[in-house]
């Protein structure tokens, strides 16, 4: 069983990895960018919205000293910050809380997944899961 100190250490590591991945996200302009893409390029919209989704949740957890935040609080803030609907946010939460994904749910709280494995580290050279 992991200690609280171990989980906090892993959360810090995951936070740094996710922070690097979200480096190009400008939260001041993300909402209008997403709205423009939604009407012109749905594939680009989905790609950017997924990255922005993780960045918003990461920032919420980081602001809470890397402790879990209430799911409803996170869901409402993501919806507002990105200008996307609650059903869409729910779909993002579903996919980004998979076993090896960036986030994890525990009860009604969401936190950074200490078992997160970046996609580029997930498979070996033959395409097999490690």
Description:
By secondary structure, the chain is mostly helical. The chain has one domain (about 5-120). About 55% of the residues lie in helices and about 10% in strands. The chain contains five helices and three strands, in the order αααβααββ. The chain has helices at about 5-20, 30-40, 40-65, 70-80, 85-95; strands spanning about 70, 105, 110. It has a three-stranded antiparallel beta sheet with strand order 1-3-2. Strand 2 and strand 3 form a beta hairpin. It is globular. The model has no long low-confidence stretch (mean pLDDT about 90).
In short:
The chain is mostly helical and 130 residues long. It has helices at residues 4-21, 30-40, 42-63, 71-82, 86-95; strands at residues 69-70, 103-106, 109-112.
Tag the structure with descriptive keywords.
mainly alpha; 130 residues; 5 helices
Q: Strand tally, please?
A: 3
Output the strand order for the largest sheet. 1-3-2
Low-pLDDT windows of residues:
none
Please count the helical segments. 5
Mean pLDDT: 91
Number of domains: 1
The run of helices and strands is: HHHEHHEE
Question: What order do the helices and strands come in, and which of them pair?
Answer:
Layout lengths: L3 H18 L8 H11 L1 H22 L5 E2 H12 L3 H10 L7 E4 L2 E4 L18
Antiparallel strand pairs: 1-3, 2-3
């Amino acid at each position: 069983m992991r200690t609280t100190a171990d989980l906090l250490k892993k959360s810090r590591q995951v936070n740094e990895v996710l922070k690097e991945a979200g480096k190009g996200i400008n939260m001041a302009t993300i909402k209008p960018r997403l709205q423009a893409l939604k009407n012109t390029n749905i594939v680009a919209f989905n790609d950017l919205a997924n990255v922005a989704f993780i960045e918003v949740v990461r920032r919420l957890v980081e602001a809470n000293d890397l402790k879990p935040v209430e799911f409803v609080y996170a869901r409402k803030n993501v919806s507002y910050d990105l200008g996307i609907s609650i059903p869409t946010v729910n779909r993002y939460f579903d996919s980004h809380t998979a076993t090896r994904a960036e986030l994890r749910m525990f009860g009604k709280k969401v936190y950074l997944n200490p078992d997160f494995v970046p996609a580029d580290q997930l498979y070996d050279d033959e395409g097999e899961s490690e």
